[in-house]
Give the backbone structure.
Amino acid sequence: MSQNHFNGYTLAYERDEIQFPVYVVALIGAGFTAAAIAFDNVFLFGLALCALGFAYYNYPLLETGRPRLGAGQYGIFVEGLGIISWRAIKQIDLVAINLRGAANNELRITLQEPLERALLANWRKRPIYRFLMRLPWSMAAKNVIRIPLDVFDRPADEIHANFMRIMSFYRR
């Protein structure tokens, strides 16, 4: 099973608000690059590299039609990680985090065993050109996977409810 052919409940990045800042920062980076070349200024070139690096890191947010997260009969699919087996999942929590006055939601998947044994399919090896790009997950502790949900095309509570429903169905 490949990363592009996952069946079940899938989620993609949101289409509306996320793309605009990436395009704006890329345009600003291109402007700084042109100004750096025109004025032969190293400081402007440094600013251009920072802006273009931010746009490069967030480029996956522009690929909105592609599934990034999902659940099916074998487990939970996470892009750039793999398929986490249902039997390896101890619990799935929806956590609200207040960050600088803004409420953000994240899914925390606690594993019963180490990540290497929990993965049915390991997709952590990425092509070299995608190595520095954004991933939709991070490791919080030894066996806890954090997935920020506010960038996806469905509400966080709906995502959590569907994952819990699918997990209870396939764990029987």
